[in-house]
Design a protein that fits this description.
Layout: E1 3-8, H1 11-25, E2 31-36, H2 45-50, E3 55-57, H3 76-94, H4 97-100, H5 104-127, E4 132-137, H6 147-155, E5 159-162, H7 170-177, H8 189-197, E6 202-205, E7 208-211, H9 215-224, E8 241-244, H10 247-256, E9 263-265, H11 269-279, H12 281-291, E10 300-304, H13 322-334, E11 340-344, E12 363-365, E13 378-381, H14 387-392, E14 397-400, E15 416-419, H15 422-434, H16 436-446, H17 460-468
Helix pairs in contact: 3-5, 5-6, 5-9, 15-16
Length: 487
């Protein structure tokens, strides 16, 4: 029986790929197998997944892979450069520290190169250990060393598919690194040389010029031929196909420069979860409210409370720490009258961390957020990928950029009200829940755009299964954007 390797590099990948494993587990033709990256060891993810009954692999299962794979290129210039790096490292290792300084940058590049070669060796061992038909990832990201997996898969005739777990955009990456001092061009001559030699790895944002990653990793990635065409755009590498979550995301990928041939519109497994909830929304809503002792005759505000991002030092952020954020959001949500206010905990937030919200009169739930979204009337979040779910249901959204991350997702959508200041959040939240005419307008402008943000035909899982299994299927038709709306 062919197998499908589900690659987990981040904690957030686990939930999305667990859904894929469940989908494939109901199909006798394909067998899911997890591979959990070593960086996930502190989170205990591999133990959790192993308990699901799905075979779970880690690097510890492949001890022989601790060897350097051959250079994955026949380019003579690259091979000569690699040989020079190896020689420089050997010479440098024999020199006293005071004399080694000029050679140190070359040693750093050699070390980064060999880390990637070790990864390449591991990928070879894993992907040849079973009869894998498909490799499934949640993202293609140089920070996660996913390029070697895709390269080896293609060499072995294994299809690579990205099932996105979040919106992939270049703004998120630039905002993540704009204040990183080690990556600033002004920090070192080596950074400036890397930017000159490999200009696509450098960018300018908010008056700063900086690199996507360290100069050593840039040189190593280029040397081995792993560089994506657009390093500042996730999923822009050599993956065979991206399972586009919606028509809006298909358009985004195309506009960002990803070739149309790499994009397949399927929808997401969450679509089917939401479709089932919508079909039974009245009884589910009644059950949710009854479970929490809430009135049945009030509208529902669902808040996806943001996790602790640990970036309270970002310029403009108005919170000193996570407890400060909890207190302010609690005050604002607690001030809402004549609504049922329900707060959903982010998967990264530990149970009990938000209990301080209870004193403000709000209700906490640990239910999965996706099936709750169709049951609400207003959705409140902070630059969350889950906002797409509310958009697809035609539900108005308050998008409070509490950390001042400056992401541009959903800009131009009239039914999504964005703000990044405490006083604006308080004002808009009060208006949306107390001004009937204002709330009605948000609903009116939001609903025409809904079909572009998700599919509620209940067949997204079937399409994704066909894509992973290399079977033919018909992609859903995409409507044009509603007049006056933009992504």
């Amino acid at each position: 029986m062919p197998s499908v390797l589900l690659l987990i590099n981040e904690e957030a990948h686990a939930r999305e790929l667990a859904r894929v494993a469940t989908l494939l587990g109901n199909d006798p033709a394909l067998r899911p197998v997890y591979f959990v990256d070593e960086r996930m060891k502190p989170f205990g993810v591999h133990h959790m997944l192993a308990e699901s009954g799905v075979e779970t692999l880690t690097a510890a299962d492949f001890p022989s892979s601790r060897r350097l794979a051959p250079l994955p290129t026949d380019d003579l210039v690259r091979r000569a450069a690699s040989a020079l790096l190896t020689t420089a490292r050997r010479v440098g290792n024999r020199l006293p520290a005071a004399l080694n300084r000029p050679i140190r940058p070359l040693q750093m590049i050699a070390s980064a190169r060999d880390q990637l070669r070790l990864r390449l060796s591991l990928c070879e061992d894993v992907l040849t250990s079973r009869d894998f038909a498909t490799l499934v990832l949640c993202e293609d990201n140089i920070d996660l060393d996913t390029a070697p997996w895709i390269l080896v898969a293609q060499r072995r005739g294994i299809r690579s598919v990205i099932v996105p777990y979040t919106i992939a955009n270049s703004v998120e990456l630039t905002e993540a690194y704009v204040f990183s001092e080690p990556l600033q061009l002004k920090t070192s001559l080596l950074n400036r040389l890397a930017a000159r030699q490999f200009p696509k790895w450098a960018t300018q944002h908010k008056g700063r010029k900086f690199l996507r990653t360290s100069y050593a990793r840039i040189a190593a990635i280029e040397l081995l031929g792993f560089a994506p065409p657009k390093p500042w755009l996730l999923n822009s590498g050599a993956v065979d196909t991206i399972a586009a979550e919606s028509c809006a995301m298909r358009d985004y990928y195309r506009e960002a420069g990803i070739p149309a041939a790499q994009i397949t519109v399927t929808g997401t497994l969450v679509d089917d979860v939401i479709a089932a909830a919508r079909a039974d929304a009245a009884s589910r809503r009644r059950a949710l409210l009854t479970e929490n002792g809430l009135p049945l005759d009030r509208p529902v505000l669902l808040c996806a409370f943001p996790p602790d991002q640990g970036v309270f030092d970002r310029p403009g952020c108005e919170f000193s720490d996570y407890d400060d954020m909890i207190a302010f959001w609690g005050e604002c949500l607690g001030a809402v009258k004549n609504w049922n206010v329900i707060v959903s905990r982010h998967p990264k937030t530990r149970p009990g961390r938000l209990d301080g919200l209870r004193k403000y009169g709000v209700t906490l739930t640990d239910h999965d957020t996706a099936p709750l979204v169709p049951l609400c009337d207003l959705y409140v979040a902070s630059v969350s990928a889950t906002i797409r779910w509310a958009l697809a249901c035609g539900i108005p959204v308050i998008n409070y950029d509490a950390y001042r991350l400056d992401f541009v997702d959903y800009v131009g959508l009239e039914g999504v009200v964005w703000m990044n200041a405490r006083n604006e959040f308080r004002r808009i939240l009060a208006a949306a829940t107390a001004d009937v005419a204002y709330f009605a307008r948000l609903r009116t402008v939001q609903q025409p755009e809904a079909p572009r943000w998700g599919f509620h035909d209940g067949h997204s899982g079937r399409r994704l299964r066909a894509l992973i299994g290399r079977e033919p299927f018909e992609q859903p038709a995409c409507p044009a954007p509603a007049e006056g709306q933009a992504r």
